Hints:
The complex is a heterodimer. Chain A has a domain at 50-99. In chain A, 24% of the residues lie in helices and 20% in strands. Chain A has 9 helices and 19 strands. In chain A, the strands form 5 sheets. Chain A has an 8-stranded mixed β-sheet, sandwiched between helices. Chain A has a 3-stranded antiparallel β-sheet with strand order 1-6-5, with no helix packed on it. In chain A, strands 2-3-4 form a 3-stranded antiparallel β-sheet, with no helix packed on it. In chain A, helix 3 packs across helix 4 and helix 8 (279-292) packs across helix 9 (318-330). The model of chain A is unreliable at 8-48 (pLDDT under 50). Chain B has one domain (10-34, 57-352). Chain B is 33% helix and 18% strand. In chain B, helix 4 (80-95) packs across helix 6 (130-142). The chains are: A alpha/beta, B alpha/beta.
Amino acid sequence: MSCSLDIEGKMNGQHPLDRRSFLKCALASGAALGVASVAHPAAAAASEDDSRYVVEARFYQRLQDRKIKCKLCPRECTVGDKERGYCGVRENRGGTYYTLVHSRIAAAHVDPVEKKPLFHYLPGTTAFSLGTAGCNVNCKFCQNWEISQSRPEQVPAQYTPPQRVAELAKQYNCPTVAYTYSEPVVFSEYLMDAADAAHAADIRSIVVSNGYLQADALKTAYGKMDAVKIDLKSFSESYYRQVVTGQLKPVLDTLVNLRKLGKWTEIVYLTVPTLNDSDQEFRGLAQWIKTNLGEDVPLHFTQFHPEYLLKNLPITPIPTLERAKAIADAEGLHYVYIGNVPGHPAQHTYCPKCRKMLVERVGFTASEVLIQKNRCPFCQQPIAGIWHV
Amino acid sequence: MEWPCGPQSQRSLRMSILDTNSRRDFFKGSLGGAALWCAGGVTGALSAEARAAESGAAAKSKVVVARDEKLRGAGPSVDSNRMLALIDRSMQTLFGRNHPTDPWRMLIRPGETVSLKVNSLGGRGISTNVQLIAAICRRLQESGVKPADIVIWDRDCSELERAGFRLAVGGDGVQCLGTDRIGYEQELSSYGSVGSRVSKILTQRSNVLINLPVLKDHDGAGITIALKNMYGVIHNPNKYHPNGCDPYVADLNMLPEIRSRMRLTICDATTAMYEGGPAYKPEHSWNANTLLVSQDPVALDQIGWQMIERKRAEKGLKTLDAEERAPKYIATAADAEHRLGNNDPKRISLVEV
């Protein structure tokens, strides 16, 4: 199992991984599906010099009595001195707010871009993918809760400054850096600096996010991204409140703003049995996307697996996902996929006009890409996406 | 269990947490305590469930509020002898016993390990008092608990040190460490709105949990006393501050790792805060020179809340309710789902000594 990546640049293939590291690696990188992967560094967080990860936050407002108000996400935490915000990775120290996770990588892998999933963005390429501890919501189904729901000092991490991120992406022949795994909103400062370093090295940046951030932060931070995948976790406020511990409206605003910014965007909808799988919700979602974002935005209905605090529900039945796709197709969306179901025909890309298959996918690999000059080679229909580097 | 720190000498460990003037008394007590324990009978400890079954649903919860206006003598520091007398008075009143070690023997079964969960977030300004902990350690040892079976702990080693504790890990003395030294359980523990990893200090080093909070205002939760102090037991307290920490505080205290071990709360209100918490604000603090002791953390929080409200009124401040931050989690903890204790004043027996 040559799974572990040393951030210092050496492959650790000969070092056996313990079970926990292996599972983390396998889950996060798709190793179980036979995808080549590299995995999270093994340094102990407690032994690190924490000061090098501490950088003043860029999205906050100072208040009286050494308090601050965080302006990064809609939660707008008011944080007293020596306290942290909801995300657990931002701390008020004497009236100045700091991120504690700048350059503090808790997971790093080389993943196919299809795993994000981004199906219409440089198919068949790999992304140097990284994440830190922390998240600004608390989804009861989180598959990466061990890092997303932890404080930075509780998870192993490795110091990886922005320049090093760009170097590693180059070293592993990745045309993109992906900010992912936990929630990139909470490490926005690092994301911005790493994106700048990557762009200087002709490497693009993509982000996998819940989209739960304020409009100004979105413009400043995600403005530096080349493509975005948003996890739209439901189309109901009550679900967001009860299952996600967040709000739907700001996420919808984010999607609209991303469109205004001209960012390539794809949407994933994790379909959870009994909680967000009604026809009404699927239809409302598809109609909203078509009206507000357009029919060419790819929508992925993905299969839920019991994790974290939602272990009492079954895996999403495939017919449920097919029903969701059928509804979204009927509403006129051009690219509706079914995800987390290896081998399903709805993981391929078809021309919305002639219905011929244009991108064939096996697992997380694009095995064949027929699109030429952003058009269907059979009927010349434009196919939305960024298809070539 | 592997401990990250290397072993230290027995003597230095025993002395290490007692950065006070009571070291000689401590050793005397420790030796004498062992003898007493061998000679005396040990009353079985009472779990919360057993107490409830014994006393019946309508029984009152007893909360002892013990004050000593001369606790600090002429200076700012707490006098260790007066502190020992104050804790003795509190415990003997709560348990209705005449000898200082009797209550502890009722509380702790032979061979049980005891963890003292302090609150060290407020630095030396408003953390659980070191003299109080020294007095409790002394009485525990006199009651037969081995020094190494006592662990003083909180979330973070550096915070403990800032609060005046000296870390002690390994050896056969009293232990003192933060969870950051040994970590949290890998498996989640969950109840209601809460899903968290619990400190290994609690799960692996404690049969008995004694909760040692401070009494202070909290900008989000309203107050932080007994129930809220359990936020220091889990890995993700930041997730549980919305909505005035309700129902998170109550749900957290329902976790079996906590509930099954919780036997006593001793709230250190030698210094208390009525506004501006949880960080220490000297301008909003007062020397209450008080301990609140109870086996019902809900009742203790209810009484402590009223102390803070009285001080707020005295200072011309609005009530917490008027500021829309009344600690509603107390009522949740007392509700039919949680039954963690009584918040109804009619069902609380307040004894002031």
